[in-house]
Amino acid sequence: MAQPKTIKLPITNIYAYGDYTATLHIGSEQSPVNLILDSGSSTLVMNQTCYHATGDTLLEPTTLAQEITYGIGGWDGPVINTQVTVEHAHDAITMDNCPVALISNENQNKTFGKANGILGLAYRHLNKSYDLAHYLDHHNIEPPHTYPWPFGTPDCVEMGNAHFNSDDLKQFKKFLWQQPEKDLLPYFTQMEELGLTANKWSFYSKRSSVHVTDAKADDEALKADPLNQGYLILGGGEEHTELYQGEFQTIDVKHDCYYNVVLNKFQVGSGAPVAAAPIDQAHEHNYFTNAIVDTGCSVLALTHDLFEHMKQGFTAISQEFNALIEPFKDTNFMATGIDASKINLNDWPDLHFHFDSETGEQVLTCKPSDYWQFNSPAPGKAVFKIISQLPNWPNQSLIGLPLLNDYYVVFDRAEHELGVIRFAPAS
């Protein structure tokens, strides 16, 4: 049996609004696709902009379909099996018959910006599919597979008195929920269970928004900026001493759905820490804890209570602070930003997050230079990267890139029963 490999993949944040992507190669043509690295989901999904299923001689259709609605955006489409390769320099890992979801229509591509899809790196519970074999047979659909996608024709699906197609994500989700459910092995889980790599991966990043110093810079120029680069380490972590300094802090994973962690307290600067409420009982069954670590989230999303506490802490320092962050209540304003000269980072406080751990409470710090991103979305502009609780989301904080950027983060899924996440100061 081949020895497990460790692959150090270069990643970039220029294709997906500040989220990081890695390049995988798909199918018989080894088509390169840029996929968002998302620890908050488990599905490998892509559009057909760079990958063309019709030319893939290794493609095997199935009777399965998937749909996912994220905090922002969503998609549905068929599941196929094909070859997936991840490689860098002389190292490569290839898996045949890998489940891949294809986005069913171009409008849904907007979910991913200029990226081609998502590589979900969470656990198996989030990778649900639905088996339409009986439906396809009952309705005499030929070929009796979900690829080519048979649900794009207007009003082709009937459910009660409603007629719709897969463009209607909300209705199509209800339709899929009536079909038999089948969990699929996520890409990384499949890789490590085959012994191709160890059961850990690591993430190194510098920013949560694209760094722009030249308004005329194209994608290649932006990609060449070291501040827009990072690394994904598949199968490795602590041995990459070039990416961190000092000691690791270890936080326990409390549930293996998302990378669920428990946030005990939140602190603004040198102010008194405030307790972070546990997740509401009504949502505990599906969301489990009051925080998740999410590499696919380019903001820090705090619960309503913690966000208000942050604003109060800002006001105690300066009456002007909340006026500066107010425009960012509309997340679309991140595409505009404010004049960076209005922000003196030395005046703003560090934000401290106190997490639960077997070894005692661990405190991680988000610096002003991480929650304010300068030279984004344009030279001389700045964006504020902390938002309040998402609509229709429980009281769960999303620990996204602004906190992760200052650390080298190791997701060690083999440690203890559910895994741990280790944080060391990034080099």
TrEMBL record:
Query: Could you tell me the superkingdom of the organism this chain comes from?
Result: Bacteria
Q: Name one GO biological process term.
A: proteolysis
Q: Which CDD domains match?
A: pepsin_like
Name the keywords, alphabetized. Aspartyl protease, Hydrolase, Protease, Signal, Zymogen
GO terms assigned for molecular function: aspartic-type endopeptidase activity
What are the transmembrane regions?
none
Checking Pfam families in the record gives: Asp
Keyword Lyase listed? no
Tell me where in this chain the Peptidase A1 domain is found.
20-421
Tell me the protein family, please: Belongs to the peptidase A1 family.
Q: Under which name does UniProt file this protein?
A: A1 family peptidase
Query: What species is given as this protein's source?
Result: Neiella litorisoli
Upper classification of the organism: Bacteria, Pseudomonadati, Pseudomonadota, Gammaproteobacteria, Alteromonadales
